[in-house]
Each structure stands twice: as C-alpha cells, then as structure tokens.
Amino acid sequence: MMFHSFGFVFAFLPFWLLGFVIVARRWGGEAGLLWLIAASLHFHAGAGSPSLVLLVVSILGNFAFARALWSYANRPAVARGLLAAAVAANLVLLGYCRYMNFFIDGANALFGTSAGHLQLLMPLGISFYTLIQIGYLAEIYNGRARPFGIDRHTLFAAFFPYVSAGPIVVHKDMAAQFDHVGRKPLDLAPIVTGLTVFAVGLFKKLVLADSIAPHADAVFNGVASGGAVDPLAAWVGALAYTLQLYFDFSGYCDMALGVGCMFGLRLPLNFDSPFKAVGITDFWRRWHITMTRFFSTYVFTPMARWRTHNVALHDDSHMLRFLNATAAPAIYTFALAGLWHGAGWTFVAFGLLHGFALAVNHGWREWGWPVLPKPVAWALTMSVVIAGMVLFRSDSLATAGSILAALGGLSGAGRPAVSLSPAALQEAVALIAVLGLIVLLAPNTQQLLRGHKYWHSSDPAPQGDAGHGAAWLAWRPSPVWAAVTAVLLVLAISAMGGEGRWL
To answer: Of 225, 332, 350, whose CA–CA distance to 287 is shortest?
Structure first.
C-alpha cells in the first residue's frame, strides 16, 4: 500500500487514526501502542501474507538475538559471536529475497552458466526493517541500548510510516517516545501539524514529481529500447528525472513524518534541501540523511578506524595512509549503499561514483587546497548528482553510458533518434525551470514549520534564517494555512491514480 493511494488516504489512515484516538483515550497508552502494532501489521499484510510472515520471522529472530546479546554482555567473545551471527542472518534473508537473481546473473556471467531466475518474494520494507534491526542489535552490543519488550520491538521494526521509504530510525529516536504513546490522544496539535506535513508531501509526489516524470520516461525508455539521444534531449531527460526523484523522495519523507506526527510519534528528518548543497559531503548530509547516518556509523567509521590502526603499524606515506584509511572506506561504503538501493550494476556504479567523489572531497580538505567559490562548488556537486541520477534511473550500464555520453556532447550514430516533439520539449523545459526555482529558492517543509510549538520531528528544528523565507510563510494553525492545506490535498487527490496532471 502506497501513501499516495486512494486506499491509504481514504480508508487505512482514517480508520487507524480514529481508532487510535478512541482506544488510547478509553484504555490508555499501552492499548494505543498495541493498536499501532495492529495497524503496522495490517499495512504489511497488504503486500500479501508471505510478506507478513517474513516480517514476523525477522522480528522474532532479532528479538531473540537482542535478548541473548543483553544476557551475554559481560562475555565479550560470546556477544561478538552472537552479533556476527545476527548480522549474517539478517543479511542472508535480505540477500536471498532481494539479490538472489542478481547473484545468479553474476555467476552466469563469470562461469558461463545459464541458470534461470528464481521466483522470489520481495517483502514490503525488508531493506528498511533489516537495517533498523541490525543497528538496534549493534546498539545493544555496544551498551547504548536496552532490549525492547516484544511489543515495542515489533513496533520499532515495523511501524508503517517508515517501512516503505524511510527514515531509518535508531533506538534513541523512538525508545522514549514509545513510553508516551497515546498520553494525549485528543491533542489536536500533532494531528493538525501532521496533516499539514502529509498534505505537502502528497502534493510534492502527485503534482510536482508525477508531472515531470513522463518527460524523463520518454528519454530513458527510448534509449533503453535502442534509441540514441542528442545532447538537448539527454539534458532534458537527466534534469527531468533528477527533479522527479527530488520531489518524489522529498514527498515521501514529508508523508512519513506527517503520518508519524498524527499518531504522536516524531521521526527523524531525512531530507533537507540537498540540491542547495555546495559539496558532495554536504549533499549526503541533506539527502537520505538517516541512510547516510547508518552507513557512516556502522560501515564507514568502523572500517576507517580499523584501517587507520592497521596503517599506523607501518611507516606508510601520507598518501597511502589517506588512501587506506579514508578513501577506500568511503568508496567501499558507498558501493554498499548503492547496492542497498537496488539489485543491479547501475546501483553499484551509482554508489562508486559518489564514493569516489567523497574520497576526492576528503582529499581536497586533507591537503588544504583552496576553498572553491560557492557557485563553482555547487556546479561541481550537481554535476556528480545528475550523473548519479542517470545511473540510478537507467535500466543498464549501456543505457546510462549512452545518456552520459550525450550529456557530454556525443550522440549515438547508426541508431534511431529519441526525440521530443516541440510541444513536449517546451513543456519539459518550462517544468524544469519552475521546479528548479522551487528547489533552489523556496523554503523546505521543516523551515516552514520550525516556529510552531509542536515540532514534528525527533531532530531539532533548523536554526537561523537561511532559506527560511518571509515570515508570512511560517506555518501556524490558522484559517489561511487550513485553506492552503485543503487546496494542496484537493490538487493532490485530483491527480491521484495518474488521472490528472496539474502542471
């Protein structure tokens, strides 16, 4: 079930939200917590009973590992072995469900075999609840978290607002909040705030992202079918998809925070105007923030520390120390992060591109080279981002290579041309201009809502005035903002199901 579907907006969300208010008011916070567990299991069941069964297996297995880790906390060798076994079990389940056919293709290419694909189940949210639980087990192992009871563990792993597209929560984000679920079930502040954030996200997804998506599809699908693009069409397709994914992911991040807020649970921020970044490191502090935090905490940092210790035992040069202890971990980490996004070499290439860019960024600072003017730094950052988006959207490396070559001024010869009609080209350019201005000039959702007393995230509200815009734009519970929210909902719902486009 998708947040932008009729079933979610008109049936699932109203039923479970109204029931939550009634149950929590009548029977208290613990009953409200159980109600949220039931809602989350219902959400997962919408993907089919096998998906729900795998979720339950994952929860029960990780619950047992969490208890065992806590029991053997004073026996480091045993705890280390338990953690390794738990991580391996989680990755095997994720790897089989999501990557087995990718591994089969790789084996066929390597050994010249012709094994066929398996009919695999893709459980809803498995990429997210797997990482969430691995991080939770690591926190218990490191003594930074106590195990949840089975009820809180289930809600922590499966809470429906963040299982589809994040954020990737950690123990400290949610533990204290679970103890206060439903304490004020009739408090309208979180419901009104959450509804506003949800409406903004729904509008971004259905009106902004979906309006420009056909122009990206025309170019990428045309090249995937064997066509060639000229530089203009390639740039239109690349920019169209870059903006489509921006508003698609930004919209889903808003919807997740908004739904969580309606139920009185604040989730961490996951998106913070990343196309305003003036460096690739800055970009990853703003784009999929919680994923960056997870891979930095549990992959990059341990690997960098181990390699730093390893090279310290040898009298290596400054360059070799940097390559071993900083560049290699960055590249390796983002190759994994790219593969986590999807089972394909284009995703690996996407991760490697960003890993190399981060290594260059770290090296630039390591050697104290001059700070680039902000416009130059922004342009270089966006060139990496756009190239990465081409890899991310392409169905194959060949498709990505053709489009990237066209972006550089090279057109494919001997193939039918992928062209946009004058009307389509004019519409695409206009949309790119309008959406680009929104991205670069408009305040983001958290900047609009930062001044309200009921803050909708577990992260602190942004400080300062940068990018906040005029004071009259600040959100407040008022008739004007109620009207704005209603208009956004009406426009988004009218475009729901792809039956209407407003831009």
So the answer is: 350
- The torsion angles phi and psi of 4, rounded to 5 degrees, stand at -95, 20
- 336-395 pLDDT, tens digit per residue, is 999 999 999 999 999 999 999 999 999 998 888 888 999 999 999 999 999 999 999 999
Q: Which residue has the higher pLDDT, 456 or 140?
A: 140
Choose the catalytic residue: 42, 153, 314, 341. Answer: 341
Which tokens in the block code for residue 85? Answer: 């076994």
3-state helix, strand, coil in the chain (%, to 5): 70, 0, 25
Name the residue type at position 112: G
- Does 43 share its domain with 96? yes
Q: What residue type is 137 in one-letter code? A: L
**For residue 288, how far is the Cα from the chain centroid?**
5
Domain hosting residue 432, numbered range: 187-271+417-503
**Residues 16, 27 within the same domain:** yes
Residues 36, 120 within the same domain? yes
Residues 6+ apart with CB under 8 A from 304: 325, 326, 329
Catalytic annotation on 362? no
311 neighbors 320 (Cβ within 8 angstroms): yes
Shared domain for 58 and 179, answered yes or no, is yes
CB 333 within 8 A of CB 385: no
User: Which residue is associated with the tokens 């597209």?
Assistant: 165
> Are 120 and 259 contained in the same domain?
no
Instruction: Report the predicted TM-score, pTM, of the whole model to 2 decimal places.
Output: 0.94
